[in-house]
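Quick one, tokens below. Sequence please?
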């Protein structure tokens, strides 16, 4: 995953193990990918680990196994308790949107947040990411 401005983005291509119907990626896998990019958008924006409180997924077109995809997550609203997000998966070969989602995330605080952030694997992350999530002991 990487940042493009305020967007969290990942590009992917999946193997046959992720097929639901023949040649089509399982919808649960697509939902999981959207939850991940939206979670990271909420976490990046808040500098906190979050719980997913709810998520709505819409499957617009089949996501074909042999294609490459781009998933994007962004924050759309923050209130005193929840962070609202949107996400989409685009078929890079065909150019259309396959799957969209909205989600709401509850940011953790205090010791619960610090413990959750320590559980993440930062081995492939930049120093900027490590500093954002591990560098502020007051979160």
């Amino acid at each position: 995953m990487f940042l493009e401005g305020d967007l969290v983005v990942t590009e992917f291509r999946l193997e046959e193990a992720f097929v639901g119907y023949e040649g089509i990626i399982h919808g649960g896998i697509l939902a999981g990918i959207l939850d991940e990019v939206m979670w990271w958008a909420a976490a990046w924006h808040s500098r906190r680990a979050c719980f997913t409180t709810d998520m709505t997924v819409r499957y617009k077109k089949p996501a074909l196994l042999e294609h490459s995809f781009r998933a994007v997550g962004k924050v759309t609203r923050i209130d005193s308790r929840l962070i609202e997000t949107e996400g989409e998966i685009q078929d890079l070969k065909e150019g259309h949107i396959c799957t969209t989602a909205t989600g709401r995330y509850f940011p953790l605080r205090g010791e619960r947040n610090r413990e959750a952030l320590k559980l993440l694997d930062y081995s492939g992350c930049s120093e900027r990411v490590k500093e954002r999530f591990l560098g502020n002991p007051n979160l």
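The radius of gyration is 16 Å. The first helix runs from residue 27 to 46.
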